[in-house]
């Protein structure tokens, strides 16, 4: 995925949310703990530019 604005410099602190089947697998790959929300089990990562990547598995 490549985030880009068409005019000027891209903003930092953008948030992208990815829904996945098993967030625990990704959490273990990055060595982070999951957090439970009423709608999903999730993690949040930041890329080198400060953009937030939120990854979650919806709760049933």
Automatic annotation (TrEMBL):
This is Uncharacterized protein. InterPro entries: Glyas_Bleomycin-R_OHBP_Dase (IPR029068). SUPFAM superfamilies: Glyoxalase/Bleomycin resistance protein/Dihydroxybiphenyl dioxygenase.
């Amino acid at each position: 995925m490549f985030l880009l604005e068409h005019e000027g410099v891209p903003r930092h602190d953008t948030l992208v949310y990815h829904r996945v089947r098993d967030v625990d697998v990704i959490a273990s790959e990055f060595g982070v703990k999951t957090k439970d929300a009423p709608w999903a089990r999730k993690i949040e990562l930041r890329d080198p530019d400060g953009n937030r990547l939120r990854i979650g598995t919806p709760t049933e």
